[in-house]
Amino acid sequence: MGVEKGTRESDTEHEEDLDEEPGEVIESAPPLKVGEERELGNSGIKKKLLKRGLGWETPEFNDEVTVHYVGTLLDGTKFDSTIDRDSSVTMKLGQGEVVAGLDHGIITMKKGEHALFTLPPELGFGVAGRDTVPANSFVRFEVELVSWIKVVDVSKDGGIIKKIVEKGEKHERPGDLDEVLVKYQVALSDGTIVAKTPEEGIGFYVKDGHLCAALPKATMTMKRGEKVKLVVQPQYAFGQEGKDASDAIHPVPPNSTLHIDLELISFKPVIDVTGDAKVFKKIMKEGEGSLVANEGATVTISYTARLEDGAVFERKGIDDGQPLQFITDEEQVIAGLDRAVATMKKGERAILTVKPEYGFGNIETKRDLAIVPPSSILVYEVEMLDFIKEKKPWEMNNQEKIKAAETKKEEGNLLFKSGKYLRAGKKYDKAASYVGEEEVFGDDEQKLVTALRVTCWLNKAACSLKLNDFKGAIKLCSKVLDIEFYNIKALYRRAQALIEAADLVSADMDIKKALEVDPHNREVKLIQKTLKQLQAESNKRDAKLYSNMFEHMTKQTSVVTKKLKVEKAEDDMKNGEAVAMEMENVADSSYPPDNGKAVDSC
User: Fold this and answer.
1) Are 369 and 315 in contact (CB under 8 A)?
2) Residue ranges of the PPIase FKBP-type domain (predicted)?
3) How many whole angstroms separate alpha carbon 492 and alpha carbon 31?
């Protein structure tokens, strides 16, 4: 058919046979080549590619497509043509507005593609036929897909239908926490405009909602720059009550369907940094690349710190001031700032909102420019100027790995001595990762590396005990004992954890093994004493439990026995009464009747 009017199939039959068309896959068959014909699956529809389309996307059912087509019988007799009418046709796929088979063919096409479809009668005009199409006829449609509008059922119940007029940029869509900037015009079915934003748009947080229920729901499905038309049913608009006039909107009658032209101008992602809604990061400017500072990085930042009322209490790197440099995850700044900065890219600008739990808590704190009252919510405007990430094990040679492990181990020791067990445990984990079992070391290094690894596991087990993570302590000590079967520290710490976990039998086994190695070890003997006391208490509880169970069972047996005796006595009594009654009846029956005749005995 061609883009120009009147172009026919014959015009493309001798077109150069180009490479395979990318993207079009039919039941794993190779893409069609220009001039090639193939059946679409087992549908009975045949498709012949006349001209390739653009890109790789194809429309789906419910999308609105704009096409030109020419319909003919197999002998070439024309029965319909948008070319002759000089007007393309727009239709919704899946409704069979021309014939059902045509819709099934169009969903395989790309924008600008030309194709010839041969349809069997059941997917054409069937047994009824039409004016110029005999019953049970095979028909052909030569089609050009001019364009289409993507149609999405946002609410999955037909309540919010979105038609994509202009595609957006990238792939990101706003989330529930994000701040969006949108532009819209809202009209009733009769065209009356009831609401319209200023030309620069209007901003709101998605979770807070705006205008009506449909707007935030639809916005979350859009990309930056995307323009759509929404058809909103009353349940997602203003329902049965409608809406009274206000500064932002004209009156909306009850049960009104709304037609909204909506554009997502931009959005600022908001991230729940700590996962408990106590530290939020709103990205004002995206950073460079994909790398973030992460834990252990040396970061350089500038910031302005304010209270909720706007009072500035601290500035760094602003107005020729020196920026702040620190190492993340070292408690060198408040936890909220530390955690948020570790998620930032170079060049990123963000606004942080920090609740007191991750700020200065309930303590009044003096800062450079003002005093921070107790339980204050803090707001930081931060820019990541630069960061240097800590080297990963695969970026180091063996000597660097060993040195890094020793350094982290010593840092962990200092933290442990100051009672910071959680942070100390992280240091031991990191130290062990530098000399992990998957790393390859030389024979002369292996002994030192194994000793380092074992020390880190034992020290982390000690942290786990302090933090009441008994399962973690048992696991770490078991790893040590897989290497050193009679390591006294591992046996001792695992026994401690097993006692706390109420596994006294396994704890006893570990203590006995430890005493085999060092019979005079004071700590092991003390824990053995504790274990014996616990075992004695356990035995007493068990004895009391079994005694109570036996007493209860004895009482139950006694009650059952008494009950059986009573039931037996009652049965005997009943049997005695029955015998007596029978005897009485027999005796009564032995008296002669009034007529003086005796009754025969039975």
Assistant:
1) yes
2) 62-149, 177-268, 296-388
3) 68
Residues 200-252 have pLDDT tens digits of 999 999 999 999 999 999 999 999 999 999 999 999 999 999 999 887 799 99
DSSP 23: T
Reduce the DSSP state of residue 475 to 3 states and report it: helix
pLDDT over 80 (residue 550) = no
In single-letter form, the type of residue at position 317 comes to: G
Strand pairing partners for 46? 39, 118
Predicted confidence at residue 287, as pLDDT, reads 94
Q: Where are the alpha helices (DSSP H) in 18-69?
A: none
- pLDDT tens track for 508-542: 999 999 999 999 999 999 999 999 999 888 878 76
Cα distance between residue 494 and residue 462, in whole Å = 10
| DSSP class of 211 | S
Residue type, 223: K
Question: Is the predicted pLDDT of residue 593 greater than 50, yes or no?
Answer: no
Count Cα atoms within 13 angstroms, Cβ side, for 434. Answer: 27
- The predicted structure's pLDDT at residue 30: 81
140-178 exposure pattern, b = at least 16 Cβ within 10 A, e = fewer: bbbbbbbebbbbbebbeeebbbbbbeeebeeeebbeebb
Q: How far is the C-alpha of 209 from the C-alpha of 176, rounded, in Å? A: 10
Nearest to 294 by CA among 333, 256, 343, 227: 343
Give the whole-angstrom CA distance, residue 359 versus residue 278.
Answer: 10
d(C-alpha 344, C-alpha 387), whole Å: 10
Question: Could you say which DSSP state residue 154 is in?
Answer: T
Tokens of 131: 């004016």
Give the C-alpha separation, 259 to 264, whole Å. 16
Distance CA 303, CA 458 (A): 41
**3 state SS for 559-588:** HHHHHHHHHHHHHHHHHHHHHHHHHHHHHH
